[in-house]
Amino acid sequence: MKLDVDVLRYLSKDDFRVLTAVELGMRNHEIVPTELIDRIARLKHGGTYKVLKNLLKHKLLHHDSSKYDGFRLTYLGYDYLAIKTMVNKGVFVGVGRQIGVGKESDIFEVVCEDGTVLAMKLHRLGRVSFRAVKSKRDYLRHRSSYNWLYLSRLAALKEFAFMKALETHSFPVPKAVEHNRHCVVMSLVQGYPLVQVKQLQNPEVVFETILAIVVRLAEHGLIHCDFNEFNIMIDDDEKITMIDFPQMVSVSHRNAQMYFDRDVECIFKFFRKRFNLSFQESIDDNDDSNEEKDEDGRPCFSEIERSAGFLDKELAASGFTRKDEEDIQRFIEGGEEADTNSDSEEVDSVEDLNESNLSLDEEHENKGNDESCEAGESGAPEKEDATDEEENEMEDEAELNKSLNKQRQRAIAATRRGRKSLASRNSYKDKGGRSSHSSKLQKQLSGW
Ligand code: ADP
Ligand code: MG
After folding, report:
1. Do 13 and 360 form a contact (C-beta atoms < 8 A)?
2. pTM for the predicted model, two decimal places
3. 216, 214, 234: which is closest to 225 by C-alpha?
4. Cβ neighbours of residue 200 under 8 Å, at least 6 residues apart?
5. What is the mean pLDDT of residues 313-319?
6. Are 188 and 274 in contact (CB under 8 A)?
7. Pair 113, 125: CB distance under 8 Å
8. Ligand 1 mutation target, pool 243, 328, 331, 332, most atoms within 8 A of CB
Protein backbone atom coordinates (compact mmCIF):
# COMPACT_ATOMS: atom_id res chain seq x y z
CA MET A 1 0.00 0.00 0.00
CA LYS A 2 1.38 3.33 -0.98
CA LEU A 3 1.01 6.26 1.34
CA ASP A 4 0.58 9.04 -1.16
CA VAL A 5 0.43 12.10 1.02
CA ASP A 6 -0.36 14.32 -1.95
CA VAL A 7 -3.87 12.90 -1.87
CA LEU A 8 -4.30 14.77 1.41
CA ARG A 9 -4.16 18.05 -0.44
CA TYR A 10 -7.05 17.11 -2.69
CA LEU A 11 -9.30 16.01 0.12
CA SER A 12 -11.82 18.59 1.23
CA LYS A 13 -13.29 19.31 4.63
CA ASP A 14 -16.33 17.28 3.66
CA ASP A 15 -14.13 14.35 2.67
CA PHE A 16 -12.60 14.34 6.14
CA ARG A 17 -15.97 14.82 7.72
CA VAL A 18 -17.34 11.70 6.05
CA LEU A 19 -14.13 9.78 6.72
CA THR A 20 -14.46 10.65 10.40
CA ALA A 21 -18.12 9.66 10.33
CA VAL A 22 -17.08 6.20 9.09
CA GLU A 23 -14.48 6.02 11.83
CA LEU A 24 -17.12 6.84 14.43
CA GLY A 25 -19.51 4.31 12.99
CA MET A 26 -16.83 1.64 13.19
CA ARG A 27 -16.93 1.86 16.97
CA ASN A 28 -19.87 -0.47 16.86
CA HIS A 29 -20.10 -1.60 13.25
CA GLU A 30 -17.44 -3.49 11.40
CA ILE A 31 -19.13 -2.28 8.21
CA VAL A 32 -20.88 1.04 8.73
CA PRO A 33 -24.31 1.28 7.09
CA THR A 34 -24.35 4.01 4.46
CA GLU A 35 -27.39 5.67 5.99
CA LEU A 36 -25.67 5.83 9.33
CA ILE A 37 -22.64 7.52 7.77
CA ASP A 38 -24.96 10.05 6.23
CA ARG A 39 -26.66 10.72 9.54
CA ILE A 40 -23.38 11.15 11.39
CA ALA A 41 -21.75 13.30 8.72
CA ARG A 42 -24.83 15.49 8.25
CA LEU A 43 -23.78 16.99 4.97
CA LYS A 44 -26.33 19.09 3.17
CA HIS A 45 -28.50 17.71 0.36
CA GLY A 46 -27.31 14.15 0.48
CA GLY A 47 -23.75 15.27 -0.23
CA THR A 48 -22.39 12.31 1.73
CA TYR A 49 -22.94 9.94 -1.17
CA LYS A 50 -20.84 11.95 -3.58
CA VAL A 51 -18.09 12.19 -1.01
CA LEU A 52 -18.23 8.46 -0.34
CA LYS A 53 -17.55 7.82 -4.01
CA ASN A 54 -14.54 10.09 -3.95
CA LEU A 55 -13.13 8.41 -0.82
CA LEU A 56 -13.68 5.05 -2.41
CA LYS A 57 -11.81 6.16 -5.51
CA HIS A 58 -8.82 7.10 -3.37
CA LYS A 59 -9.08 3.77 -1.54
CA LEU A 60 -9.62 5.45 1.80
CA LEU A 61 -12.78 3.41 2.25
CA HIS A 62 -13.83 -0.07 1.34
CA HIS A 63 -17.36 -0.74 0.14
CA ASP A 64 -19.23 -3.85 1.21
CA SER A 65 -22.74 -4.78 0.25
CA SER A 66 -22.76 -8.46 1.04
CA LYS A 67 -25.15 -8.17 4.00
CA TYR A 68 -26.21 -4.56 3.82
CA ASP A 69 -24.82 -1.54 2.08
CA GLY A 70 -21.94 -0.05 4.00
CA PHE A 71 -18.35 1.06 4.23
CA ARG A 72 -15.32 0.61 6.43
CA LEU A 73 -12.07 2.53 6.70
CA THR A 74 -9.04 1.09 4.99
CA TYR A 75 -5.62 1.40 6.61
CA LEU A 76 -4.99 4.24 4.22
CA GLY A 77 -8.12 6.05 5.37
CA TYR A 78 -7.10 5.64 8.98
CA ASP A 79 -3.55 6.78 8.15
CA TYR A 80 -4.89 9.96 6.59
CA LEU A 81 -7.06 10.77 9.57
CA ALA A 82 -4.08 10.42 11.91
CA ILE A 83 -1.71 12.31 9.61
CA LYS A 84 -4.20 15.11 9.10
CA THR A 85 -4.59 15.46 12.88
CA MET A 86 -0.82 15.50 13.37
CA VAL A 87 -0.43 18.16 10.67
CA ASN A 88 -3.26 20.23 12.18
CA LYS A 89 -1.53 20.04 15.54
CA GLY A 90 1.70 21.22 13.97
CA VAL A 91 3.61 18.05 14.89
CA PHE A 92 5.01 17.80 11.36
CA VAL A 93 4.41 19.34 7.96
CA GLY A 94 5.34 16.57 5.56
CA VAL A 95 5.76 12.82 5.20
CA GLY A 96 8.90 11.49 3.58
CA ARG A 97 10.28 8.09 2.67
CA GLN A 98 9.44 4.83 4.34
CA ILE A 99 12.32 3.75 6.58
CA GLY A 100 11.00 0.56 8.04
CA VAL A 101 8.41 -2.07 7.55
CA GLY A 102 7.62 -4.45 10.34
CA LYS A 103 5.22 -7.32 10.57
CA GLU A 104 2.62 -5.06 12.04
CA SER A 105 3.81 -1.54 11.38
CA ASP A 106 5.09 0.86 8.74
CA ILE A 107 7.65 3.53 9.62
CA PHE A 108 8.12 6.79 7.74
CA GLU A 109 10.27 9.84 8.07
CA VAL A 110 8.30 13.01 8.73
CA VAL A 111 9.60 16.54 8.59
CA CYS A 112 8.79 19.38 10.98
CA GLU A 113 8.39 23.02 10.08
CA ASP A 114 11.93 23.79 11.26
CA GLY A 115 13.34 20.99 9.10
CA THR A 116 13.83 18.47 11.90
CA VAL A 117 13.22 14.92 10.71
CA LEU A 118 11.27 12.59 13.00
CA ALA A 119 10.06 9.00 12.72
CA MET A 120 6.36 8.14 12.40
CA LYS A 121 5.25 4.62 13.20
CA LEU A 122 1.85 3.51 11.90
CA HIS A 123 0.69 0.45 13.80
CA ARG A 124 -1.04 -2.29 11.86
CA LEU A 125 -2.06 -4.71 14.53
CA GLY A 126 -4.22 -7.40 13.09
CA ARG A 127 -2.72 -7.11 9.61
CA VAL A 128 -1.23 -10.58 9.84
CA SER A 129 -3.97 -12.10 11.90
CA PHE A 130 -6.72 -10.88 9.63
CA ARG A 131 -5.48 -13.30 7.03
CA ALA A 132 -5.28 -16.09 9.56
CA VAL A 133 -8.87 -15.51 10.54
CA LYS A 134 -10.02 -15.31 6.96
CA SER A 135 -8.34 -18.52 6.00
CA LYS A 136 -10.17 -20.38 8.71
CA ARG A 137 -13.56 -19.23 7.50
CA ASP A 138 -14.94 -19.98 10.89
CA TYR A 139 -17.92 -17.89 11.77
CA LEU A 140 -17.55 -18.42 15.49
CA ARG A 141 -14.07 -17.07 15.34
CA HIS A 142 -15.43 -14.07 13.56
CA ARG A 143 -17.89 -13.58 16.36
CA SER A 144 -14.99 -13.04 18.69
CA SER A 145 -13.26 -10.88 16.16
CA TYR A 146 -11.48 -7.76 17.17
CA ASN A 147 -11.42 -4.34 15.78
CA TRP A 148 -8.11 -3.60 14.10
CA LEU A 149 -8.61 0.11 14.53
CA TYR A 150 -8.94 -0.34 18.25
CA LEU A 151 -5.98 -2.71 18.52
CA SER A 152 -3.68 -0.55 16.41
CA ARG A 153 -4.65 2.49 18.42
CA LEU A 154 -3.98 0.60 21.63
CA ALA A 155 -0.57 -0.51 20.37
CA ALA A 156 0.31 3.10 19.57
CA LEU A 157 -0.87 4.32 22.94
CA LYS A 158 1.11 1.61 24.72
CA GLU A 159 4.22 2.32 22.69
CA PHE A 160 3.98 6.01 23.41
CA ALA A 161 3.34 5.50 27.14
CA PHE A 162 6.25 3.08 27.54
CA MET A 163 8.62 5.22 25.52
CA LYS A 164 7.86 8.21 27.71
CA ALA A 165 8.18 6.26 30.94
CA LEU A 166 11.43 4.63 29.87
CA GLU A 167 12.84 7.96 28.78
CA THR A 168 12.01 9.43 32.20
CA HIS A 169 14.14 6.69 33.73
CA SER A 170 17.02 7.34 31.36
CA PHE A 171 16.68 4.25 29.23
CA PRO A 172 18.14 4.64 25.75
CA VAL A 173 14.91 4.96 23.75
CA PRO A 174 13.70 7.39 21.07
CA LYS A 175 12.07 10.54 22.35
CA ALA A 176 8.29 10.18 22.27
CA VAL A 177 6.84 13.24 20.55
CA GLU A 178 3.12 12.64 19.95
CA HIS A 179 0.53 9.95 19.31
CA ASN A 180 -2.83 9.92 17.61
CA ARG A 181 -5.00 6.94 16.69
CA HIS A 182 -2.57 4.19 15.49
CA CYS A 183 0.28 6.61 14.90
CA VAL A 184 3.30 7.43 17.09
CA VAL A 185 5.77 10.17 16.28
CA MET A 186 9.20 9.89 17.88
CA SER A 187 12.73 11.11 17.37
CA LEU A 188 14.58 9.57 14.45
CA VAL A 189 17.29 7.24 15.68
CA GLN A 190 20.59 7.77 13.89
CA GLY A 191 22.05 4.39 13.15
CA TYR A 192 20.95 0.98 12.02
CA PRO A 193 19.21 -2.05 13.43
CA LEU A 194 21.89 -4.29 14.94
CA VAL A 195 20.91 -7.05 12.56
CA GLN A 196 22.46 -5.05 9.70
CA VAL A 197 25.80 -4.62 11.45
CA LYS A 198 28.51 -7.05 10.43
CA GLN A 199 31.37 -5.70 12.50
CA LEU A 200 31.80 -3.95 15.81
CA GLN A 201 34.85 -2.29 17.29
CA ASN A 202 33.93 -3.40 20.79
CA PRO A 203 31.51 -6.30 20.60
CA GLU A 204 32.05 -7.21 24.26
CA VAL A 205 31.21 -3.71 25.42
CA VAL A 206 28.12 -3.56 23.23
CA PHE A 207 27.06 -6.98 24.45
CA GLU A 208 27.46 -5.99 28.11
CA THR A 209 25.60 -2.73 27.54
CA ILE A 210 22.67 -4.55 25.97
CA LEU A 211 22.54 -7.16 28.69
CA ALA A 212 22.66 -4.44 31.33
CA ILE A 213 19.57 -2.86 29.72
CA VAL A 214 17.63 -6.12 30.03
CA VAL A 215 18.57 -6.36 33.70
CA ARG A 216 17.80 -2.72 34.40
CA LEU A 217 14.42 -3.07 32.72
CA ALA A 218 13.61 -5.97 35.05
CA GLU A 219 14.72 -3.89 38.03
CA HIS A 220 12.10 -1.39 36.88
CA GLY A 221 9.52 -4.14 36.68
CA LEU A 222 9.54 -4.66 32.92
CA ILE A 223 10.48 -7.18 30.24
CA HIS A 224 10.81 -6.13 26.60
CA CYS A 225 9.66 -9.48 25.18
CA ASP A 226 11.07 -8.84 21.72
CA PHE A 227 14.56 -7.78 22.63
CA ASN A 228 16.61 -8.85 19.66
CA GLU A 229 18.87 -7.56 16.89
CA PHE A 230 15.85 -6.14 15.00
CA ASN A 231 14.77 -3.93 17.87
CA ILE A 232 18.17 -2.66 18.93
CA MET A 233 19.56 0.26 16.97
CA ILE A 234 23.25 1.09 17.02
CA ASP A 235 25.07 4.15 15.67
CA ASP A 236 28.61 4.71 14.40
CA ASP A 237 29.82 5.32 17.95
CA GLU A 238 28.27 1.99 18.94
CA LYS A 239 25.68 3.72 21.03
CA ILE A 240 22.56 1.63 21.63
CA THR A 241 18.91 2.63 21.34
CA MET A 242 16.13 0.17 22.05
CA ILE A 243 12.85 0.41 20.10
CA ASP A 244 9.50 -1.35 19.65
CA PHE A 245 7.51 -1.59 22.90
CA PRO A 246 3.92 -2.71 22.30
CA GLN A 247 4.59 -6.23 23.56
CA MET A 248 6.38 -5.33 26.81
CA VAL A 249 5.09 -6.99 29.97
CA SER A 250 5.46 -6.58 33.70
CA VAL A 251 7.78 -8.84 35.68
CA SER A 252 4.67 -10.01 37.49
CA HIS A 253 3.32 -11.54 34.27
CA ARG A 254 2.74 -15.28 34.66
CA ASN A 255 5.27 -16.03 31.91
CA ALA A 256 7.74 -13.37 32.99
CA GLN A 257 10.59 -15.77 33.62
CA MET A 258 10.20 -17.34 30.17
CA TYR A 259 10.04 -13.95 28.41
CA PHE A 260 13.06 -12.69 30.29
CA ASP A 261 15.11 -15.79 29.52
CA ARG A 262 14.07 -15.59 25.90
CA ASP A 263 15.25 -11.98 25.60
CA VAL A 264 18.56 -12.90 27.21
CA GLU A 265 18.92 -15.94 25.03
CA CYS A 266 18.40 -13.87 21.86
CA ILE A 267 21.25 -11.58 22.81
CA PHE A 268 23.62 -14.40 23.69
CA LYS A 269 22.83 -16.31 20.53
CA PHE A 270 23.21 -13.29 18.25
CA PHE A 271 26.54 -12.18 19.69
CA ARG A 272 27.92 -15.68 19.64
CA LYS A 273 27.00 -16.24 16.02
CA ARG A 274 27.60 -12.80 14.56
CA PHE A 275 30.62 -11.65 16.57
CA ASN A 276 32.03 -14.97 17.73
CA LEU A 277 31.76 -14.06 21.36
CA SER A 278 32.33 -17.02 23.59
CA PHE A 279 30.81 -17.28 27.01
CA GLN A 280 32.75 -19.21 29.64
CA GLU A 281 30.90 -22.50 29.15
CA SER A 282 29.52 -23.36 25.76
CA ILE A 283 25.93 -22.31 25.56
CA ASP A 284 23.54 -25.13 25.22
CA ASP A 285 20.36 -23.83 23.64
CA ASN A 286 18.26 -26.42 25.36
CA ASP A 287 19.73 -25.92 28.75
CA ASP A 288 17.49 -23.99 31.06
CA SER A 289 19.01 -24.73 34.42
CA ASN A 290 19.63 -21.55 36.38
CA GLU A 291 22.90 -22.81 37.78
CA GLU A 292 24.52 -23.16 34.39
CA LYS A 293 23.11 -19.93 33.21
CA ASP A 294 24.94 -18.26 36.05
CA GLU A 295 28.11 -19.97 34.97
CA ASP A 296 28.04 -18.58 31.46
CA GLY A 297 27.19 -15.17 32.79
CA ARG A 298 23.49 -15.05 32.10
CA PRO A 299 21.49 -12.86 34.41
CA CYS A 300 19.17 -14.86 36.57
CA PHE A 301 15.60 -13.54 36.60
CA SER A 302 14.76 -14.70 40.12
CA GLU A 303 17.78 -12.94 41.53
CA ILE A 304 17.05 -9.53 40.07
CA GLU A 305 15.81 -7.12 42.70
CA ARG A 306 12.90 -4.93 41.72
CA SER A 307 14.81 -2.14 43.38
CA ALA A 308 13.67 0.60 41.06
CA GLY A 309 9.96 -0.17 41.48
CA PHE A 310 7.42 -0.27 38.71
CA LEU A 311 6.77 2.38 36.13
CA ASP A 312 3.02 2.30 36.81
CA LYS A 313 2.75 5.97 37.66
CA GLU A 314 4.40 7.15 34.48
CA LEU A 315 2.38 4.76 32.36
CA ALA A 316 -0.89 5.84 33.91
CA ALA A 317 0.09 9.46 33.32
CA SER A 318 0.26 8.73 29.61
CA GLY A 319 -3.32 7.46 29.65
CA PHE A 320 -2.49 3.77 29.29
CA THR A 321 -4.78 1.82 31.61
CA ARG A 322 -4.78 -1.67 33.07
CA LYS A 323 -7.76 -2.50 30.85
CA ASP A 324 -5.79 -1.37 27.78
CA GLU A 325 -2.97 -3.66 28.83
CA GLU A 326 -5.32 -6.60 29.32
CA ASP A 327 -6.86 -6.08 25.87
CA ILE A 328 -3.59 -5.82 24.05
CA GLN A 329 -2.06 -8.79 25.87
CA ARG A 330 -5.10 -10.88 25.05
CA PHE A 331 -4.54 -10.11 21.41
CA ILE A 332 -0.76 -10.63 21.45
CA GLU A 333 -0.93 -13.87 23.40
CA GLY A 334 -4.18 -15.22 22.02
CA GLY A 335 -3.82 -14.11 18.41
CA GLU A 336 -7.15 -13.95 16.69
CA GLU A 337 -8.98 -15.19 19.78
CA ALA A 338 -8.78 -11.73 21.28
CA ASP A 339 -12.11 -10.13 21.88
CA THR A 340 -11.77 -6.41 21.85
CA ASN A 341 -15.29 -5.28 21.36
CA SER A 342 -16.29 -1.83 20.44
CA ASP A 343 -17.43 -0.95 23.95
CA SER A 344 -13.85 -0.28 24.83
CA GLU A 345 -13.79 2.18 21.99
CA GLU A 346 -16.44 4.36 23.42
CA VAL A 347 -14.56 5.25 26.57
CA ASP A 348 -12.23 7.83 25.14
CA SER A 349 -14.14 8.86 22.11
CA VAL A 350 -14.47 12.47 23.16
CA GLU A 351 -10.76 12.92 23.26
CA ASP A 352 -10.49 11.28 19.89
CA LEU A 353 -12.85 13.67 18.29
CA ASN A 354 -11.29 16.69 19.82
CA GLU A 355 -8.09 15.48 18.31
CA SER A 356 -9.61 15.33 14.88
CA ASN A 357 -9.54 19.09 14.75
CA LEU A 358 -12.15 19.16 12.08
CA SER A 359 -14.36 22.18 12.11
CA LEU A 360 -18.08 22.17 11.69
CA ASP A 361 -20.06 24.83 9.98
CA GLU A 362 -22.62 26.94 11.85
CA GLU A 363 -25.61 25.05 10.62
CA HIS A 364 -24.30 21.72 11.81
CA GLU A 365 -23.44 23.15 15.18
CA ASN A 366 -26.94 24.45 15.67
CA LYS A 367 -28.34 21.06 14.89
CA GLY A 368 -26.12 19.39 17.44
CA ASN A 369 -28.94 17.93 19.52
CA ASP A 370 -31.16 16.81 16.70
CA GLU A 371 -32.80 13.66 17.98
CA SER A 372 -32.89 12.11 14.54
CA CYS A 373 -29.14 11.65 14.53
CA GLU A 374 -28.88 8.49 16.46
CA ALA A 375 -25.91 6.32 15.70
CA GLY A 376 -26.64 3.05 17.29
CA GLU A 377 -26.44 -0.69 17.38
CA SER A 378 -27.40 -2.41 14.22
CA GLY A 379 -30.77 -4.08 14.23
CA ALA A 380 -29.47 -6.53 11.68
CA PRO A 381 -26.69 -8.97 12.56
CA GLU A 382 -23.32 -7.30 12.44
CA LYS A 383 -21.11 -7.88 9.47
CA GLU A 384 -18.38 -9.93 11.08
CA ASP A 385 -16.54 -11.14 8.04
CA ALA A 386 -13.35 -9.13 8.18
CA THR A 387 -12.09 -8.54 4.70
CA ASP A 388 -8.43 -7.89 4.08
CA GLU A 389 -7.00 -4.63 2.84
CA GLU A 390 -5.62 -5.84 -0.43
CA GLU A 391 -8.46 -8.13 -1.23
CA ASN A 392 -11.84 -7.55 -2.75
CA GLU A 393 -11.27 -3.93 -3.67
CA MET A 394 -12.91 -4.50 -7.03
CA GLU A 395 -16.50 -3.35 -6.88
CA ASP A 396 -19.34 -3.51 -9.28
CA GLU A 397 -19.20 0.17 -10.15
CA ALA A 398 -22.59 0.35 -11.79
CA GLU A 399 -24.33 -1.37 -8.94
CA LEU A 400 -22.61 0.81 -6.41
CA ASN A 401 -23.50 3.97 -8.26
CA LYS A 402 -27.08 2.86 -8.49
CA SER A 403 -27.25 2.09 -4.83
CA LEU A 404 -25.56 5.32 -3.80
CA ASN A 405 -27.78 7.38 -6.05
CA LYS A 406 -30.87 5.71 -4.69
CA GLN A 407 -29.82 6.42 -1.15
CA ARG A 408 -28.87 9.94 -2.06
CA GLN A 409 -32.32 10.55 -3.46
CA ARG A 410 -33.88 9.11 -0.35
CA ALA A 411 -31.73 11.30 1.84
CA ILE A 412 -32.66 14.40 -0.11
CA ALA A 413 -36.32 13.48 0.09
CA ALA A 414 -36.00 12.83 3.80
CA THR A 415 -34.30 16.16 4.35
CA ARG A 416 -37.20 17.86 2.60
CA ARG A 417 -39.73 16.04 4.73
CA GLY A 418 -37.75 16.74 7.87
CA ARG A 419 -35.08 14.60 9.40
CA LYS A 420 -37.33 12.63 11.68
CA SER A 421 -38.77 10.58 8.87
CA LEU A 422 -35.31 9.41 7.87
CA ALA A 423 -34.60 8.18 11.34
CA SER A 424 -37.87 6.35 11.60
CA ARG A 425 -37.25 4.50 8.36
CA ASN A 426 -33.78 3.53 9.31
CA SER A 427 -33.27 -0.14 9.86
CA TYR A 428 -30.14 0.39 11.91
CA LYS A 429 -31.90 2.32 14.59
CA ASP A 430 -30.66 2.31 18.12
CA LYS A 431 -32.32 -0.40 20.14
CA GLY A 432 -32.07 1.56 23.34
CA GLY A 433 -29.02 0.07 24.96
CA ARG A 434 -26.57 2.18 23.06
CA SER A 435 -28.58 5.34 22.84
CA SER A 436 -26.27 7.13 25.23
CA HIS A 437 -23.50 6.39 22.78
CA SER A 438 -25.56 7.86 19.97
CA SER A 439 -26.16 11.13 21.66
CA LYS A 440 -22.53 11.19 22.74
CA LEU A 441 -21.47 10.86 19.12
CA GLN A 442 -23.73 13.70 18.23
CA LYS A 443 -22.32 15.91 20.94
CA GLN A 444 -18.84 15.13 19.79
CA LEU A 445 -19.74 16.10 16.28
CA SER A 446 -21.08 19.37 17.54
CA GLY A 447 -17.71 19.98 19.10
CA TRP A 448 -15.86 19.80 15.81
P1 ADP B 1 7.74 -3.41 14.33
O2 ADP B 1 6.92 -3.33 15.58
O3 ADP B 1 6.89 -3.54 13.14
O4 ADP B 1 8.83 -4.42 14.42
P5 ADP B 1 9.76 -1.37 14.84
O6 ADP B 1 9.41 -0.33 15.86
O7 ADP B 1 10.65 -2.46 15.31
O8 ADP B 1 8.43 -1.96 14.20
O9 ADP B 1 10.39 -0.64 13.60
C10 ADP B 1 10.71 -1.33 12.40
C11 ADP B 1 11.96 -0.74 11.80
O12 ADP B 1 11.79 0.65 11.55
C13 ADP B 1 13.15 -0.82 12.74
O14 ADP B 1 13.84 -2.04 12.58
C15 ADP B 1 13.99 0.36 12.29
O16 ADP B 1 14.76 0.03 11.18
C17 ADP B 1 12.95 1.37 11.86
N18 ADP B 1 12.66 2.32 12.96
C19 ADP B 1 11.71 2.21 13.89
N20 ADP B 1 11.69 3.25 14.73
C21 ADP B 1 12.69 4.06 14.32
C22 ADP B 1 13.21 5.33 14.78
N23 ADP B 1 12.68 5.96 15.83
N24 ADP B 1 14.25 5.86 14.09
C25 ADP B 1 14.78 5.23 13.03
N26 ADP B 1 14.33 4.06 12.55
C27 ADP B 1 13.31 3.47 13.18
MG1 MG C 1 10.47 -4.44 15.62
Report:
1. no
2. 0.74
3. 214
4. 206, 234, 238, 275
5. 76
6. no
7. no
8. 243
